[in-house]
Amino acid sequence: MAELSLSGYSRRSSGFKSVLFSVTAFLELLLVTSVIVLEYFLRWTEVFPLRRAVFSCTDPSIGCTTKDAELLSDFAFSARVPSEVIYALSFSIPPFIIFIGEIGLYTFTTEPQKTIRIISKQCVIPQVVRRLIRFIGVFVFGGFTLMVFVDIVKIMVGRLRPDFLEVCQLTNKSMCTSLYPGGEPYGTHDLCQNTNRLQLRQARTSFPSMNSALTAYAAFYIGIYIHGAMRSHTVRIIRPFISLVFVMFSLLCGLAEVGLCLSHWTDTVIGFCMGVILAFYLGFAVLNNFREHLSQEKLIELLNNYVADSYFNYDDGYNWLKPEPVTSIRIPRAQVYRTSSDETDVKYRRPRLKHSTFQHDRHNSLDRYRRNSGGVGAASHM
């Protein structure tokens, strides 16, 4: 009866875990979809109003022109890449690398693969599929969450881009004063002749840099994955090489924005820091450095092995369990040195031995044992 009750409990427990996994997966998918929709309204629509900062036509920090950017084109290697291309590469390259890495680990690893069951025993998900869904899903969620954070800060700060005056296309600069452009207490688009309101919105949201934040997040996420999941000692140089290449591309992307008058240097630095912080948080705190969680049986086995190794190292009585290769049959000579200056443990100190070698000590012990045994035998005969 006890065995039947335990088996029934295990079946109910496994069924509860399957249902809980399905519900959690549905909620997480719904959450990721909500974040993507929110980012769409923040980035590509005017549903959320932004702060319109006061500007001056004589402000050099927003007066960068195309000619000034051309002077710095050699510095940036003329890397005027559209933001949409940067977004697409940032969201496609890390999943591709994760896919290649997981397929390689699944093909060449010798460790047993864990599987999970959903709802029924027939619905089984292999470990490689589960890891792909988890790692790529967390990356996509983190990327869109980072974009939401950056866009919220952008619309709240409303810092003007270095090329704002050129994007605005002012015609009557005499009306542009250092206090109230257009006669309004807050800067408006009334003086701007550019009819593309999306361009004007992007020109008013420079802080922090979206490209720097997103590329830094993707680069460091890849680096953490490579060092956490690929733990083979045969790729000591390949792992840091791939990681540093993507980090270098991220830095070049931020420097190109500064050189082409698309962002201030402070915008680039803050965006880079935001991406790095989020990548480290998701990689270490959420994904456990891209390593599998150990089961209870595996933890107990590792703990027992560790305790046994530690006990054998400290207890000389169990050294026979760890045989060492015999290199010689010569009996080692043990020699004990006593100094006259050492006055500790005088009460329990043994007298100085006449012969210091192990062989003479053994002969003396045998002779003493024979004499004692002879005396005992004679007394018994009496």
From TrEMBL:
Source lineage: Eukaryota, Metazoa, Spiralia, Lophotrochozoa, Mollusca
GO molecular function: phosphatidate phosphatase activity
Family the UniProt entry places it in: Belongs to the PA-phosphatase related phosphoesterase family.
Domain Phosphatidic acid phosphatase type 2/haloperoxidase: 136-283
Subcellular location(s) of the protein: Membrane
Pfam family, one: PAP2
Keyword check for Acyltransferase: no
GO cellular component: plasma membrane
The name this protein goes by in its record: Phosphatidic acid phosphatase type 2/haloperoxidase domain-containing protein
InterPro entries: PAP-like, PAP2/HPO, PAP2/HPO_sf
Keywords: Membrane, Transmembrane, Transmembrane helix
SUPFAM superfamilies reported for this sequence: Acid phosphatase/Vanadium-dependent haloperoxidase (SSF48317)
A biological-process GO annotation: signal transduction
Statement: the UniProt record of this protein carries the keyword ATP-binding: no
Membrane topology designation: Multi-pass membrane protein
Transmembrane segments: 20-42, 85-108, 135-157, 210-229, 241-263, 269-290
